[in-house]
Design a protein that fits this description.
80% helix, mainly alpha, Serine Threonine Protein Phosphatase 5, Tetratricopeptide repeat, 475 residues, single chain, globular, 23 helices
């Protein structure tokens, strides 16, 4: 009996020891969620505006690790979104996209409105800066949808409205102004006042309104915002106003202040256009040397951002096709319920086709009628695309996707792995340019164009006897 008691007590001590060990281990993983949230939102925002990317990256990596250990998935996802924003501002779009994918995997499990709003807001921005405007607008609509569901909308929803205004400003001027004011109403900040002022300068050419809102922006600028990216952008827009008023010396002073801040805060994607504006001012001040210097700086940064953007575009386009493939799978299940209707329609089309063939055979007419894709777009849009392509303008691929999105969609259904440069080549062939034209406009050898066309045939499985122009205009 004593032996049994000893064994029981021994086992009891073992289980007690294991329980204590587990309890102590669990205690070590406890985290302060409120403290992590505060760091992910407020501390991160402060470092972001100050452009302290090294500290910001270190902070978020540490918060991600803490969140993982404490089982706080939302904190982990927010950390990924913060890193995506940071790398996007640095011009490292591919890295940014990878962090967003990590955040998305978590967000789809949690179904958290704030997380969805932040995620889609960031997806919208990364697609916009890499030229996929329609995709960016789609993500922005999702972000606003979830942003409206938040108890505390404020700055985040205001930012989403401002983002939408950016995306549509070139196509829908009146709507863009409405969204600018919605953004300002949600968050009456110096930056949002500045954005309205710049809108009036660029879109309505109303100098009185532009002056009113830019002056208001300077008056709303807080001490805590000095030295941050917000101050840099406000000074940038104010300099634009001064340049328009031909106050070039004063404009140059504000442009340089803005450039210093944006360089310090590492906002590389905003610098090319700013450098072009400085070059423009030097041109009016008749300083050829400084004009050429800033023009060169702008072109150098443009090439760097373009190379980074190409990688992100390839990823984004592949994901669009992947999502469409998933949607197609869902449609299969819907189609099963309508099988009788489909079979009936098929039989109708088959009988009608036979009838047409018979009639065409008698009349000697061809069996098919070609409807060129160009008939789907206006003459003005077609002319605009021609001009952009001829000048090798960076906006060409973006405008083509806006004007004729179906071509890229149909091409990517065949091969979703095409790069941005290959899609651009498809677009130029669709426009009717010869190999020599493409070589001249893109500054490459004629032989290189032929090589690119050969690769395109292989990737899209186009037979050698099939004319590329006919192939693309038939899609």
């Amino acid at each position: 009996m004593n032996r049994i008691s000893d064994i029981y007590l021994k086992n009891h001590r073992i289980f007690l020891f294991i329980f204590i060990a587990i309890s102590l281990s669990s205690c070590g993983k406890k985290i302060d969620i409120q403290e992590i949230d505060n760091a992910l939102l407020k501390k991160n925002e402060k470092l972001r505006l100050e452009g302290k990317d090294t500290e910001l990256i270190a902070l978020n990596n540490d918060l991600i690790s803490q969140s993982k250990e404490g089982g706080y998935s939302k904190g982990e996802a927010l950390g990924y979104i913060n890193l995506a924003n940071t790398y996007g501002m640095m011009g490292k779009y591919k890295t940014s996209h990878e962090y967003l994918k990590s955040a998305e995997k978590i967000a789809t499990r949690l179904h958290d409105n704030f997380l969805y709003a932040k995620l889609y807001h960031e997806y919208g921005q990364i697609n916009y800066v890499t030229g996929l405007v329609n995709t960016a607008l789609s993500y922005n609509a999702k972000a606003i949808h979830y942003g409206k569901k938040l108890d505390e909308k404020g700055w985040l929803l205001g930012n989403m409205y401002e983002q939408r205004a950016d995306f549509i400003s070139s196509s829908y001027k009146d709507s863009a102004l409405i969204y600018r004011h919605r953004g300002f109403n949600m968050d009456p900040s110096a930056l949002n006042a500045s954005l309205i002022g710049n809108y009036h300068l660029q879109q309505t050419q109303n100098l009185d309104s532009a002056t009113f809102y830019n002056d208001r922006a300077l008056s709303l600028l807080k001490d805590s915002e000095y030295g941050t990216v917000r101050q840099g952008i406000i000074y940038y827009f104010y300099a634009d106003l001064l340049a328009e008023k031909k106050e070039f010396e004063k404009a140059l002073d504000f442009y340089k202040k803005a450039a210093d801040i944006l360089v310090k805060t590492k906002r590389i994607n905003k610098l090319p256009n700013l450098y072009r504006q400085i070059a423009f001012v030097y041109q009016h001040l008749q300083d050829k040397k400084m004009e050429d210097s800033y023009t060169s700086k702008a072109e150098e940064l443009d090439q760097k951002l373009k190379a980074s953007g190409n990688e992100a575009i390839d990823i984004s386009l592949s994901e669009i096709i992947e999502q469409k493939n998933k949607d197609n799978i869902n449609l299969i299940f819907i189609a099963i319920g309508a099988v009788v209707l489909i079979v009936g329609a098929f039989m109708f089309l088959l009988i009608r086709n036979r009838k047409y063939k018979k009639e065409n055979k008698i009349s000697g007419k061809p069996n098919t009628i070609a409807f060129p894709s160009k008939e789907r777009i206006s003459k003005e849009d077609f002319t605009e695309l021609l001009d952009l392509a001829k000048s090798n303008d960076l906006k060409f691929i973006k405008r083509f996707e806006e004007i004729n999105p179906s071509l890229f969609q149909n091409i990517l259904k065949i091969n979703p792995q095409l790069t941005k440069s290959e899609l651009s080549l498809c677009a130029m062939i669709w426009l009717g340019f010869s190999s020599k034209d493409i070589a001249d406009f893109t500054f490459i050898q004629h032989r290189s164009v032929q090589t690119k066309k050969g690769r395109l045939r292989k990737k899209l499985n186009i037979p050698s006897e099939k004319d590329l122009y006919s192939f693309f205009t038939s899609l």
